[in-house]
Amino acid sequence: MLYKKSPGDIAFDVINMIIMLFLVFVTLYPMYYVVIASVTDNIALLATPGFLWYPKGFTLGAFRLAFTHPLLISGYKNILIIMVVSLFINIFLSLFTAFFLASKNMLFKKPVLFIILFTMFFRGGMIPDYLNIRSLHLYNTLWALILPGAISVYNCIIYRTAIETIPDSLSESARIDGANDITILFRIIFPLIKPTTVVLLLYYGIGHWNSWFPASIYMQDNYKLPIQNVLRAILIANSSILNSAATETDQINQFAESIKYAAIVITTVPILFVYPFLQRYFVKGVMLGAVKG
After folding, report:
1. Closest listed residue to residue 154, CA positions, set 195, 219, 97
2. Full-prediction pTM beyond 0.85?
3. CA-CA distances (angstroms) from residue 121 to 102, 167, 176, 207?
């Protein structure tokens, strides 16, 4: 017997559909607007203050000008260096820390755990961090953007929880066969928590990609700025960084508005393309490394 929906059920479904379509529109339209505005003529863009549904005066001039901007190229180069070096350090340190926290009968485990968790809730502050970077001679170097964020306590806890889901019998069998801790960690545990590793790579990677404030403090040379700082400079109309690096001021003025949207597209699309390749690991990794009470 087929279930026949009542008028109240039909009305409920229709209202739900309308609300969901509205939320989809509110979520996706800003991204759609940025893409359309990036290929719209600057004069037509300024003359259309409201909704923009299609490119008016289609042009790729803003993209051509953005790619010839010297700071954009150097920004991409710097962020790639930061991400490659940082992600290796992030995963390496997080894995070893999580392995220590997940190990049983480890000497001084509780005091070390307290110290690690203490840093999660308390820190020295911006001024001590700055003085520390200066005293270590890291100022105006990419290491100032890599080493301070080398490890995240929260991500270590996720890693530890994932390691604790692995049966102890695997490690005990390996020890009987003569394996040491390093062999157990990289030959047994690490392959089994691959989904969690991918998720943490995503967490760390997005954090590095979106980070801009540390570079604004520790970087003096504009050509050492990562891509988000360059984007910020382009989005600010009278940025001194943009004016000092631009060699064709007339072209900058010609695409003054559309180049902002082109820069957003250029700096956002690469990180968006990463998600489809990591999506199959994401849910499994989050559930495997979920923080349990």
Report:
1. 97
2. no
3. 21, 31, 40, 18
Q: In which region does residue 57 sit, left (phi positive, over 0), alpha (psi from -120 to 50) or beta (all else)? A: left
**Fold of the CATH domain 70-225+268-288:** MetI-like fold (1.10.3720)
Domain extent listing, the chain: 70-225+268-288
List average pLDDT for each run of 10 residues in the chain, which is 293 residues long.
Answer: 71 89 89 83 73 79 74 85 92 89 80 84 84 90 89 87 84 84 86 85 86 87 85 62 48 61 78 69 53 47
Q: Is the dihedral of CA 33, 34, 36, 37 positive or negative?
A: positive
